Amino acid sequence: MGLDFGTRTVGVAVSDPTGLIARGLETITRREDHMLRPTLRRIQEIIHEYQIETIILGYPKNMDDSVGERGRKTEEFAEILRRRVNLPVILWDERLTTVAADEILEESGVPVRDRKKVIDRIAAAIILQDYLNDRRKTAAPRQTD
């Protein structure tokens, strides 16, 4: 499962059973940044429904690799999530994923006014797909010359 944790939304993505392809699933919305119980409850429902084994949580780092306020909030959410669902939660560099998601939506002809509804789940899919691609790349045997 891939998550894009934001101030008021969490984009959710899942992979196919083979772990090859990520797809955006939904966007969980909350009224306040600190109101996490309903969000955590929905994440637990998705975990059970899709038999999730690992959570890849987008980690918003600054371009200079430092961690700002949003990154610290994400670290706190990761700890809460680990305790709540008892699954591995991997922080995954998400720099520029929202930009990439917006570009995908623009190229797909989605009007600007409609992008906000889906951009978080697209970003979550990009985060998860990056992780899946990296995992496959590191698992592939190296060829020798």
Plain-language structure description:
- The protein starts with a strand and ends in a 6-residue tail after the last helix.
- Helix 3 (97-107) crosses helix 4.
- It has a single domain (2-139), classed as Nucleotidyltransferase, domain 5.
- A five-stranded mixed beta sheet has the order 3-2-1-4-5.
- The protein has helices spanning 37-50, 69-85, 97-107, 112-139; strands at residues 2-5, 9-15, 22-29, 55-59, 89-93.
- The chain is an alpha/beta fold.
CATH fold category name: Nucleotidyltransferase, domain 5
CATH architecture: 2-Layer Sandwich
Structural class: alpha/beta
CATH class: Alpha Beta
The residue-averaged pLDDT reads 89
Strand content: 15-25%
Integer count of domains:
1
**Which segments are poorly predicted (pLDDT under 50) over 5 or more consecutive residues?**
none
Q: Globular, elongated, flat, extended or rod-shaped: what is the shape?
A: globular
Secondary-structure element string:
EEEHEHEHH
Total helical elements: 4
Helix percentage: 40-55%
Query: Biggest sheet, open or closed, and with what strands and sense?
Result: 5 strands, mixed
Q: What is the strand tally? A: 5
Cα-to-Cα separation, first versus last residue: 37 Å
Radius of gyration: 15 Å
Strand order in space, largest sheet:
3-2-1-4-5
State the fourth-level CATH superfamily. YqgF/RNase H-like domain
Which properties best describe this structure?
alpha/beta; Nucleotidyltransferase, domain 5; 4 helices
